[in-house]
Amino acid sequence: MSNIITINTADNGIFRVLPMLIEKSTTLTNLIEDTVLSEEDPVIELNSIERLTMTAVLDYLKIHLNDVVKEDKPTDPISEVDEAFIGNNVDTIFKIIEAANFLDIKPLLEMGCKKIANLIKGKSTAEMRTILSIENDFTPQEEADMKKENEWVST
Predict the structure, then answer these.
(1) What confidence tens digit (pLDDT) does each residue in 37-58 have?
(2) Cβ neighbours for 35, distance < 8 A, ≥ 6 positions apart
(3) Domain coordinates of the chain in residue numbers?
(4) In CATH, 5-133 is 3.90.180.10
(5) Cα–Cα distance between 30 and 113 in angstroms, integer?
């Protein structure tokens, strides 16, 4: 196997990485094993991930390169290092979650989902819509009807 793997993103971001950096990605590991073993300079095409997102994923993998995989409980807090890494930009977090899901990097996927959950925890429906950029498509009458039908939820 080559000592360097080249990754090409949807927007032609080129990354040259050592295989050990991407070992935590089941998808990338399988792609390397299945399609590029015989190539002199293997290139993995990732048409669903953009350069900035791949940069973030690789940064995460560098931060956690020597970590031993352990099962986190949903109630475990996000570490300070991961909090600094993931930030609070919801659009960026969702892109990282999508990439982690596609690349099968379970700890990154779980951390991203936990961050979104923490951002909306304890928020009202209106606040969650704002945070998640979800447009309210109910008419005022539909919303009032729904609140009346579900009064028991807020008691």
Answers:
(1) 556 667 889 999 999 999 999 9
(2) 42, 44
(3) 5-133
(4) no
(5) 24
